[in-house]
Amino acid sequence: MLLNQFLLLGAFLFATGVYGVMARRNSVLVLMSVELMLAAVNINLVAFAAYQNNVAGQVFALFVLTIAAAEVGVGLAIVLLIYRNLRSSDLDDVDVLKG
Amino acid sequence: MFFLDHAWLVPLIPAVSFVAILFFGKRLPRNGAELGVVSVGASFVLSCGALIGWVQRVNDAKPAGSALGGMVHAFGQSVGRLGAEGHVAAVSPVVHHLTWWRSGGIEFGAGTQIDGLAVMMMFVVTLISFLVHVYSTEYMHGDRRFTYFFAALSLFTASMLLLVVADNTLQLLVGWELVGLCSFMLIGHWWEEKPNSDAALKAFLTTRTGDVGLTIGVIMTFFLVQRATGSGSFNILAVNSAALSGHVGHSFVFWCALALFIGIIGKSGQFPLHTWLPDAMAGPTPVSALIHAATMVVAGVYLGARLFPVFWTGFNIHDGGVNPMALIGGITIIIGAALAFVQDDIKKVLAYSTISQLGYMVMGLGVGAWTAAVFHLFTHAFFKANLFLGAGSVSHSGAHHSFDMKKDMGGLRKYMPITFATFLIGSLALAGIFPLAGFWSKDEILVTANAANYKFFFYVGLVGAFMTAAYMTRCIYLTFFGEYRGGHAHAAPELDGTAHGAVEDVADAHLAEVAEAAHGHHDEPHESNGLITVPLIVLTVFSVLAGFINAAPFHIEKFRDWFEPRVAFPVSTIVHPAFSWPKAIISVAIALAGFAVAYAYYWLGLGPQRLAERNPLARAGKMFLVKKYYLDDLYEKVIVAGIKGPIANAVYWVNQHIIDNVLNYTGRGAKALGEMTYEYIDQGVIDGAVNGLAAGTGEAGGAARQLQTGRLQFYALLLVLAVGLFSLALWIAS
Q: For helices B417-431 and B455-480, what crossing angle results, to 10°?
């Protein structure tokens, strides 16, 4: 069965994404890491759909792709505005919510 | 019938006018006087409507009474005669009642009970009040509290009318007390002078003494109804029926009657509580006229007439002999008339005359002469109002606002012909000269007293008639005849005396002229203007003609037919003696003798002149009269001082030592308790809890604050750790 390999790939991609989100300073790279995590989820969805002969999982994957595209659009716009305001895209500089 | 059903409007209109004058009077062009005159005029019109409506009601009821009525009527005899034989149908009063609240089966409310007595009183009260209002617009012109005066006058009228239309004793009591209050306000109208406010207080407190009796009487009559029918009531008809029913023990009815009678003594100036009435002359003259003719003092007689069955049963009036009511009335006739001889103040002569005439009314009720007593109230209202307003006219235009007959009057008949003529006719009516109003009513009282086995009171009445004629002759002699003594005009006690009095003391003709012009007066006495003389003339016409409404020898007995109650009233047992020419001639002859003796004494100088200066016994007698039988001294020095002295001191001691100590210690204890509460409970427990909660919240916030780094990736780490923890937990749990 090929499922294990797909799941392992998904887990690897997800872990890479988590690491990127937490470790990278550049906000564009953080955004890209989020995309990696979404891709990992998509792989899982498609893999399970194929495994169970259920097309619903693939439909969900399409929805995730669409929403991810929208999310990247919004996210990049935010990053752009942050850069415009702070002259930096470093996430460590964005700490105005500090209590 | 509209006017009978809507009699509640009659007292309401002046009551509304009272409020309106109080609030808007000063902004009106005539300072509120027009409101008073118009409202009382409207009430008068409504009262006339009610009177006509009632007469129609009585006339309509007659044919149903008996076939005999129509038959005898066809023979040309007056229908009125039939009243005596009891063939007249019962004409029930028009009663409307509004319940205010019920409590324990007792109903409290207001209502109107319109019958002959009520419509008669409404007519008299509104007519006299209307004339007094018109008169006052001139008499009180320029007064410092002109608006207030008219407001009080309106309330006075409204209160009396409220009393008159009452269908229950509680409402009657309310009207009664309001009348007392208004008389207090008006007698003390010029309260800046001490004697005036003293007189007002005296009037109020003396009548209050009687009111205690009335209040007890009202409560007792409630239980009188309860004893007779099983459930108590304040309704006047119910009280009267209960008194006549015979189901209640006689002694209880007697005590009811006595308690109510004490109220009458206080209000109607009967001996021994008459002393306030002469002092009440401190008020403005129109008020005196109103008090003596239509409102205040006749309220007592009205009460006696209203609840007559209670007295009838309680005092055994039909038995003849002596009862408290007749006795007090008789005493009052004589003592009032005697005091009138030694007064120098024209108004006080009239005041004692009123006391004496009220004695006639009360004595009339006491001997069972209901119709005659009420008739005397009716006629007396006209000639007494006439005399008072006449005295006011004399003072206003002829005597520089003084009322002293010996100092400031005399010879005024030449200057004031209209006032003189009206005053003379009023005096003749008062003395009971044929055929003026007083003759018919006084004669009827005397004849009834004689016929009902009250011979003694018949003679008392005759003596009173003699004295009345004599003191009125003295009064007219001093006021209108002889030389004018008012040349040395002096300070006016009644008017805003500063400019008036001060200037006249200065013998500067020019200054005096200016001041007089400002007041619209002249030094010479002169006739009063139309606003004063027209009411006098109207009242004189009534003084002459009012008696003919019940003139027995001409077979006119409308007063009895129209106004005598037929429901809850001892109709069958009450005495209606026939007119007697010999007795009428005797009473007129005695009155003429009174005139003659007084004429001889004052005009011709016959008899023992200045006896009081020569004979110690006569001097003592005169002193006794001048001192008003020492009753004032008794009340003030013995009773009031007795209460003021030891009792007041004892009360003061109790107040200082016992009540104050209790209060002080209670106060101190409460203060200590309060301090303790503040220190421990309030500051310690409650404030501690509140403050602790706030501090705890602050600390917790400070700690939680540390978590909020503002760094996005730190939050993400926490998120991942949390998910990891939950996953671990799920894995372990599964």
A: 170
| pLDDT at position B513 over 50 | no
* Separation of alpha carbons B570 and B305, rounded Å: 12
Instruction: Count the domains in chain B.
Output: 3
* Average pLDDT over every residue of B239-257: 84
Q: Which residues of B touch A99 (CB under 8 A)?
A: 704-710
Structure tokens at B422: 């009206």
Interface confidence, given as ipTM, is 0.80
CA gyration radius for chain B? 35
Residues B357 and B436 in one domain: yes
Residues B282 and B297: their CA atoms lie apart, in Å, by: 16
Residues 702-721 of B with CB under 8 A from A: 704-713, 716-717, 720
pTM: 0.69
- Tell me the per-residue pLDDT of B679-734, one tens digit each, with 9 for 90 and over: 888 888 888 999 999 999 999 998 888 878 778 888 888 899 999 999 999 999 98
List the single best residue of B705, B706, B707, B711 to mutate versus A (max A Cβ within 10 A): B711
pLDDT over 80 at B35, yes or no = yes
Helices (H), B108-193: 116-139, 146-165, 169-187
Cα B88 from Cα B73, distance rounded (Å)? 13
Q: A61 vs chain B: nearest CA distance in angstroms? A: 23
The model's confidence at residue A15, banded by pLDDT at 50, 70 and 90, is very high
> Cis ω on the peptide bond leading into residue B272 (within 30° of 0)?
yes
CATH T-level topology, domain A3-91: Helix Hairpins (1.10.287)
Cβ distance of B709 and A92 shorter than 8 Å: no
Would you call A99 and B707 a contact, using CB atoms and an 8 Å cutoff? Answer: yes
The domain containing residue B685 runs over which residues?
A: 631-696
